[in-house]
Each structure stands twice: as C-alpha cells, then as structure tokens.
Amino acid sequence: MDLRDLENRCIQEEAPTCTARCPIHVDVREFLKKAASGAWDEALHVLAIMMPLPGIVARICDHPCELVCKRMEAGDAIAVSEIERAAVKRGRITKRRSPLPQKRGRVAIVGSGLSSLTAAWDLAYKGYRITIFEAGDQLGGPLRGIPEGVLPLEIIEEEIGILTQIGVETKPATAMNGGEWLEAIITDFDAVYVGLEPGSPPDSGILSEGCMPADPLTLATSRAGLFVGGKGTKEAACSPIESVAEGRRAAVSIDRFLQKVSLVARREKEGPYETKLFTSLDHVTPQPEVRMKDPSGYSETEAMDEAKRCLQCECMECVKICPYLEHFESYPKRYVRQISADATMVMGSHGKTSKLVNSCSLCGLCTLVCPHELSMADVCMEGRRSLVRRNKMPPSAHAFALEDMGFSNSEKAALALHEPGKDQSQFVFFPGCQLAAIYPEHVLSAYTFLRNNLKDVGFMLRCCGVPGKWAARGDLFEEALRGMEEAWKSLGSPTIIMACPTCYQILKERLPQANMVTLWQILVDAPQSNQAKAVTRKLAIHDPCATRYEPDIQDAVRKIVTGLGYDIEELTLGRDRTECCGFGGLMSAANPSLARDVAKTRALRSETDYVTYCAMCRNALAATGKRVLYLLDLLFASETDAANRRAPGLSERRENRYRLKQRLLKELWGKQEGKLDDYEKITLYISPAVHKLMEERRILTEDVQKVIDHAEKSGMKLFNPDLVHWLASFKPAHVTYWVEYSPEGNGFMVHNTYCHRMEIVEETGA
Amino acid sequence: MKDHWMCGRCNKKLEQGKVQIRYLGKVFAIDVFKCPSCGMVMVTEEIAMGKIAEAEQLLEDK
What is the 3-state secondary structure (H, E, C) of A153-201? Predict the structure, then answer.
C-alpha cells in the first residue's frame, strides 16, 4: 500500500477558498483570525507576507476573495476588504524583512503602475539591482488619482520610500523615445519588465510589434529578457489585485530567467485556482454582515465582530468525530507523514509512532466521513505491519490479546461437535470467543433455542483470529483461520450461525465458501419470548462498528427489539456512522486509557439505556458505568435489571470460556470433565482492591496460581517474618509475575501482585 | 520492619546487590535485594512498576 497516496487524500492543508481565489494567495483566514482579536499589527504582518506594498494594496484591493467566501452559504461573505481598511488604519508594520544578499543581475522596470511597482518590490527583495524608469514626474502615476480618503498620498510616498530604502533606483521624467530607447535599455540591463497599466506611461508605442504578445503564463516575449505585463489580461485592466499578480508573475519569470531555470515548470498554482478543501457548514448559524454606523469605515469593534464571522475554514471532518484522531492533537495528513517517515527509516529505525498506529480502533468511521475516503485503518495497519516486519512492535501492545487468542483456540476452550445424539450438522452455532467469555449462560440458552427451532445444529467454540489480524501478526491470523476451517469442515461444512459481528466480517472475507447467517436474522423470524428484561420501555441502539456496512443485520436487530415491545432511540452516530466502543483494533490492549475515554464518549451520547449486539461492546460500555443490555438479555436474562450487570474482567472472561466448554461437554454430551492441572486446584482469596490491581496490570488468576504452585513446589520463595507473607515469582512465558501471599484456610490469600517483561539474566552468584 | 525479607530456602537476610536484566536485546544492571547465599533475587513492586516499567516503555518507544 502506498502511504503517500493515502497522505494525499487528506485535504486539511489545502488553502481555503479565499486564499485559493486571491491572485497572490494572501492568508485571509489567518488575517481574519488576528483581526477578530484586535491584533492589528499582527494582522498586517500576515498581509505583508504575500502582499507587496501592503499599505497601498490593502487599501485598494478589489477583493475577489469575497466572491468565493464560504460564509455566503450561511449569511453574507466576510467583508474582507473593509476589515483590511480598518486594519491599515489601526495597525502598524513594526518589522520589515530585509532583502536577500545581492545577486548578479540588473533589472529595468519600465512604468510605475501597480504591476511595475510589484515586480520592482519582489525582485529587489530577491536581491537584484532594480531601476524603475517612469515617463511622468512622479512614480505611481495612476495611484495618485485615487481619492485621498481611500489612498492618502503620504502612504504612496511612504511605500515608494521603502523601495528606495531597499536599493531600488528610480528615474522619473525619463524621455522614452520609442523603440530605440527600449533597445538601449535591453542592451544595458540583464532583464526588462514593461508594465502597461492604463494611464501609466509609457504607451505601448515603445514596443515593436515583434515583441507582442507576451505569453500569459510567463509574460515573456519573443525577445529574450523582455517581459511585458500590466495589460496582459482583461482583469488586470480594472483590477488592482490582478495588476499586482501580473507584476509578481513577471518577477517570478525574471528571477527564473536570470537563474537560468525553466520559466514554465510548476506554475499551476500561481494566480487563482480551485481548492480541494472541504468545510462542513453543519451546525453553522447564519449571520449577516456587520453593518457600519459610519459609512466611511468600520469602527474597531465592528471590524473585529465582522472578522469573528469568519468560519476559519478547515476540513477536520474525521477529527471532529474520532477521539483517537483528536487525542494525538493533529490530523491524518500529518499522522500519515509521521508513520511513513518511521516506516521508511532503515538504519536505527525507531518505533516512535507505535502508540499512534496501535491506538486506532480500525472502526472505519473516518473513511465514511472523509471527502476523499482516507482510511486511517489502512494507514495504521500498514504502520503495524511495518513495525512487525522491522521487529519494532512493542511486546506490551498485543502480547496479552494474542496469548488470549491462543487460549481460546487451545484444548482448554475450543470445541467442535455435532448436536448431542446426531452424527451430522446442517447448522453450527458459533458464538465467538467474547460472547462465550462474557455471557456463557446466554450461549447455552441460545443453543437450546436454536436446537428447538432448527434441525441438526452443531456447536463450535473458538476465536476467529481477529486479534492476530489486528496485531499485524499474519502468521497467527492464518493459523487461527486454518483451525477454524478445519473445525468447520470436521462438522461437514454446515451453515454457520454467528453471534459476533466481528467474527462475521472475518469469516465473510476469509471463509467465503461457507454459508453464514447471523443469530439475529434467525431470531427475527422466530417466535419471541415475552420475558423481556429491560427496566425501561425505550432503548437506544448501539450498533457495533463491525456492522457499519451491514444494514440487514441492523434492521434485524431493530425488528427484534421492537418486536419485544420496546421503543427505539436512534443515536446521532448510529448505523453506518456508529462509533467504536474502544475494544476494536485492540485499542484497549495498546492504549487502555484512550479506550476508556472512547467508551465514555460513546456512553454519554444518550442517557437512555443502550442495547447492543456485540458482547465486547456491552462489556466496554458497561465498564464505564453506563446501563447497557446485550440483545440476548432481552430474551434470556435471569436477573431483573440486566442493564446494571457488572462487566466481567479479564480473568473471569478466560475462566468462563474454560468452564463453558467443561459444562457443555458434561451437560450436553455427557463427557468427562478434563483433568485439572495442579495449579488450577489452588484456591485463592482475592480482595476487591487486589482484583482491581490485577485487572489494571493484566494479571490473571491463573498467573497467580502458577506462581504459588511453582513457589510451593520448588521452595523458591522469600519470607517476611514480620508480615508472615511469602513473596515469589514465576515466568510462564514472556512476563515475570510476582505474588505476595500467605496461607489461608485451604488456599492462599493474595496480598499483592505485579509483573514485568524485563528478564532477569543472572540469578546466581552472591 | 515491613521490608525485612529473608530467603525462604537459605533463611538468610537479603542484602543489596546488582542484577542484570534484559529487554528487547538490551542488558542493564539494576539494584535489587538478593540472598547472599543462593543469589535468589527480590524485585519489589516499587522497582517493577517504577524503574523497570519506565525502562520498558522507553525501549519500546525506541
């Protein structure tokens, strides 16, 4: 995948319409931002970055930016021009830049209209030696005819004075005697610009027909080194800012000519162009233009109020709806740049962006709202694959989840059997590992329901492998998929009845030869139970992000809920615009605090009790304290207020999977319970405080059991005679667990437990 | 004395010492308590969740 292509899709850095339309690309948005706060000096500095002779141009600009202002779609265009006039009255340009060191090259500027003055200004700042020839007695001829109230003469003098200060030589009252005079100038100078603004001498009589017309892109003529503008476009004839743009175009060409580089390369964005920037006007209240009390111009507060109406156009569509994108305080273009810089570093490469790529839930909402369908999920998956390839994936990010996946697919939790007493399967119920972990009793109820309503329903417990996919561990993902396919084939390739929306997506893509149906699509046609368990009559539906493009499943769920007699509240961000609960993409594994914030944000979208149809969504949302039902609660829950049910933690979820398999084998298939390992027989007493610690540190009950089992068998333990506690450690795989404990009844009281991934190299030698 | 730990095998009071720890191919020495006789090491919660956790994070970010 080409990260650069993805980077280019983000348009946040594109210019707003005003700047793109401005012939000299003034940063109007930034100017208005400064003006809105009354920072007039700063506002003028923003103008002066792109604007030559800012004192003059700011007063007389004919403001084409206003014609394309987005504000027009919600009120009137911003009165940029009037605000500019207010700014030049109130602000002062306190620091001016210095010209670049002098370059070789003498340039003659003929005429002193706006295009000529601009060309002189730009080229002088670039370090060339400039001489302005003017037929009239004073420079800036036509400018002097503008009413004093609009453009005071002293301003013209002041800005022409700046030209002199930066070394421009001026020759007013020059007698320009036709073609011969110009010929001499062309010989004498390295380049010549002739500005032909109306009313500004010289007349075009000095130009021989052979030199015209000038090329509109470069203003070059057939005579090398001679450039002509000021009347080259119709607009320039009546638009001061177009004249300025002509002068700038000439300056760019002359600079290139003198530097002996291409006159034509990469000039597409000179002058007005169409921007790709998108700005949403949702939630924008229409506001009319601020009226001025005194028709001669805005007062300070009027100008500030008018500037405040600026929408400060930007895209940020994805950042506005995604707490993850917001969390890293920038926007996708920059994120992709960081990720791709990290991925292409060969030597001494650093996984600095690992937190960024591993924290995305891969939920796909950004792609849906992006005007150019940029997928941060694709970007982050590419980033993750790169980390794994370069051996830079932090072990702490996904190790726990991958190990948990291994457990789900081990003998301890996996299972594939025909219905009890049958030797074939037309269907197989596949609840998915998290439903088995969170609602083992609902799995049993649903299976009973399916057996009562369908024929030959086998049963399959395991993990679809998505943690491997999310962790960019293609090897583990493929292994899990192979296991899945083998288990399915061992049952005679029956139709798979799925409860987990994520499993459904994975199998749809990777086991396309299988017939599949969701539990919800079966329940919608089945006779409904009437023992509904919600406390309220209205429920808000939280669609899991894996169903974003599954309207049929979303509809089935709504039918079930209304069929049970509930009213439905649709969340603003529902159906294809739904948000992740914080579990997707292993966000909660790599960035638990962000995942909690994401879940909280989602939980706060409505005060109504939620109902969802992904067990993991239910768990993540319920962990924030939100009242949430799992859809099967409405059919099978035994408690009176299932929305209030506690979300089981990591240990409990793993144990539930193990116990579910044992229970199914015993109760339905009459098979013996598996033999327990020694450590599993150890009884633990764990206080709520220690339990909380274990959840935070991702330490499972079985990890603690293994430490104590090892310590008690080997005698490798430490003793504290004052506390009468033992302390021991054990490293079953990659993590070393420490447990402080003491004997209690027939088992052990756990006082504390912690862990680290660093490995102790030497243990012997005093 | 809450922090008074003894080796459960040798019954000796732990003494201050150094131990090498390794992570992501890098090796460091850290201060720990260990048994003067058999060398059994004690990593306290403070060190595990403090210095070691910080070092793990730093190495992972590199």
Answer: HHHHHHHHHHHHHCCCEEECCCCCCHHHHHHHHHHHCCEEEEECCCCCC
Cross-strand bridge partners of residue A748: A684, A743
Q: Cβ contacts of residue A419 below 8 Å, gap of 6+?
A: A425, A451, A456, A457, A458, A459
Residue A494: band (very low, low, confident or very high) from pLDDT cuts 50, 70, 90: very high
Mean pLDDT of A113-135: 96
CB A252 within 8 A of CB A23: no
Is residue A591 pLDDT above 60, yes or no?
yes
Residue B38: closest C-alpha in chain A: A764
Spell out the domain ranges in chain A. Answer: 13-96, 106-259, 317-393, 398-519, 538-647, 678-756
B28 or A281: which carries more pLDDT confidence? A281
The verdict on a CB contact (< 8 Å) between A726 and B61 is no
Residue A210 has pLDDT above 60, yes or no: no
Instruction: Give yes or no for a cis peptide into A16 (omega within 30° of 0).
Output: no
Q: Do A754 and B52 touch (CB under 8 A)?
A: no
Give the chain A residue nearest B47 (alpha carbons).
A756
Output the CA angle A652-A654-A657, nearest 5 degrees. 105
**Chain A partners within 8 Å of B2 (Cβ):** 720, 722-723
For residue A765, what pLDDT is reported?
A: 43
CB contact under 8 A, B43 and A756: yes
Q: What is the pLDDT of residue B1?
A: 46
Interacting residues of A417 by C-beta distance below 8 A, sequence separation 6+: A458, A459, A460, A491, A669
Q: Which amino acid is at A181?
A: W
Pairing of strands A427-430, A415-417: unpaired
List residues bridging with A686 in a β-sheet.
A750
H helices of A72-151, in order, are: 80-90, 114-125
Mutation test of the interface with chain B: which of A345, A756, A759, choosing the one with the most B Cβ atoms within 10 A? A756
Q: Does A394 touch chain B (CB under 8 A)?
A: yes
Assigned fold of A106-259: FAD/NAD(P)-binding domain (3.50.50)
Residue A47 has pLDDT above 70, yes or no: yes
Please give the angle made by the CA atoms of A431, A436 and A442, to the nearest 5 degrees: 80
DSSP string, A571-625: -SS-GGG----S-GGGHHHH-HHHHHHHHHHHHTT-SSPEEES-HHHHHHHHTTT
In angstroms, the separation between the Cα of residue B18 and the nearest Cα of chain A is: 9
Alpha helices in chain B (DSSP H): 45-47, 53-61
Helix residue ranges, H only, A10-70: 17-21, 28-36, 40-50, 54-60
Count other C-beta atoms under 10 Å from residue A499's C-beta: 26
List all residues 6 or more positions away from A184 whose beta carbon is below 8 Å from its beta carbon: none
What burial class does residue A47 get, using C-beta atoms within 10 Å of its C-beta: 0-12 exposed, 13-18 middle, 19+ buried?
buried
What pLDDT is attached to residue A525?
78
- In this complex, is the C-beta atom of A763 within 8 Å of any C-beta atom belonging to chain B? yes
Q: What pTM did the predictor assign?
A: 0.83
Q: Residue A766 and residue B35: Cβ atoms within 8 Å?
A: yes
Tens digit of each residue's pLDDT (9 = 90 or more) over A6-41: 999 999 999 999 999 999 999 999 999 999 999 999
Q: Which CATH number fits domain A398-519: 1.20.1330, 3.40.50, 2.30.30, 2.40.128?
A: 3.40.50
In sequence order, the 6+-apart residues with CB closer than 8 A to the CB of A477 are: A465, A466, A468, A469
Among candidate residues A8, A5, A11, A42, the one with its CA nearest the CA of residue A27: A42
Question: Which residues of chain B neighbour A352 with C-beta distances below 8 Å?
Answer: 61-62
List, for residues A596-607, the tens digit of each pLDDT value: 999 999 999 999
In angstroms, the CA A533 to CA A625 distance is 19
- Domain A678-756 in CATH 3.30.2310: yes
Going by their DSSP bridges, the two strands A516-518 and A129-133 should be labelled as unpaired
Contacts of A759 in chain B (CB under 8 A): 21-23
